[in-house]
Design a protein that fits this description.
The protein is α+β, with helices and mostly antiparallel strands. The protein has 2 helices and 3 strands; from the N terminus they run αβββα.
Length: 115
């Protein structure tokens, strides 16, 4: 005779409670890690240090430093390219730190679940 009621796959109510507690703990840890990451800054330079850009963990530009010798009114395009390069590298560093945090928190699941 078939067993009525119960939980599919033999899951017990206590196991579901433990699973929910673990999920909530993981969510709190991820939120704390994200807040910590947002307080960090990432700095990158281009043109041998002639241009330096700092971004926050929120991926916002917070500082741009230019050396005097890179400011040439006859070559604005080079300065623009250096700013773009330094900004993109600083943002890449911030994204890499974020990905490392997510990997740590999710145990290598890639930040998501397959369902």
């Amino acid at each position: 005779m078939a067993k009525r009621g119960g939980f599919p796959g033999g899951a017990m109510p206590g196991n579901m409670n433990n699973l929910m507690k673990q999920a909530q703990r993981m969510q709190r840890q991820m939120e704390e890690g994200q807040k910590e990451l947002e307080t960090k800054e990432f700095t990158a330079s281009a043109g041998g240090g002639a241009v330096e850009v700092t971004v926050s963990g929120k991926k916002e530009v917070v500082k741009v430093t230019l050396s005097e010798e890179v400011v040439d009114p006859d070559d604005i395009e080079m300065l623009q390219d250096l700013i773009v390069a330094a900004t993109n590298e600083a943002l890449r560093q911030a994204e890499e730190a974020n990905a490392a945090l997510m990997n740590k928190m999710t145990g290598g699941f890639g930040g998501g679940f397959p369902f």
